[in-house]
Amino acid sequence: MQNEIGTNQISHKRCTATKIILTGGAGAVTTLCANSIAKGIATAIAEDAMVVGGLRNSIFKEGAKAALDAHCHEIKFINPTQPLDSYMRALIKASESESPSLLARNYEKVIGGIQNSARKIGRKIIPNIMEFMDKKDKAEIYKFLKSVINGENAGCLNNSITVNLDKLAASTFHEMGHASNYNCKGLGKVLQLLRESKCKHIGLGLAFAGAILVSSKEPENESGQPQGFWTKTKRFIGKNCVGIAALSCAPEILEEGLASVKGAKIAKSVLSKDAYKMVNSLNRKAWLTYLAGGAALTLGVFVTKKIRSILDRALTSDK
Fold first, then answer.
1. Which residues contact 54 (CB under 8 A, 6 or more apart)?
2. pTM attached to this predicted model
């Protein structure tokens, strides 16, 4: 009898391990494919819009300069066309604030690489940063900054923005929207703090763990309630994993959208009607990349949960 019980327990553990492995593998493949396809399409649309904006840069440039002059007290401009050493020192200065965690992700490695090199000789900002920088750090920094310097991208560091006005002035207004979010004390600031924290990674980790590890046939007690605190928590995460994934992605999507809305208000006061419409179109298409990424990750959790449910029915023997 004991041997039979032991055999059943081993069989149950093997069955559970099989379900976890199959669910995790299938869920990972589904998520990666959905994310690649969705972001690929959205990025292509956004890049096409940015190319159009770059080709017609002259209709945005003067308006962008006027907007920066009008908001110079609360939003600082870092010119990427200045000498590289000066540009990087300006980025370091912009990153040194009360909330360094608010660094835009695109520049986190840049600032880190510069500061690490500066620390090697015991100074935060040095006369010629490039002289003391490793080849690997240089490669990383050139890779990240090249897109901004060449007018292929723009960025925001706290209340400072960096954009090549000679090539991509249309992006100035969206970046000013990010800086406005940083300066405010309301929803924009909260969304930035949530976005740049680890909340997204923790939330997505919990969501995928719940979808993979939590069986759709968790045992319940006689009253129909989960047994114990751990079981309650586990069942809650498993049951609500799709919602957790969506909420984890929401701050980034909402903050990007709010930055575009605030940027549009600034653009409306300095641009012609046609140029204003083009800026809004550019920002909407760029926003699709974030929406597509969040939707793909949420879909990945949903599919993973469904796969686990199917395997629970298929591999669980009737008792």
1. 151, 167, 168, 170
2. 0.78
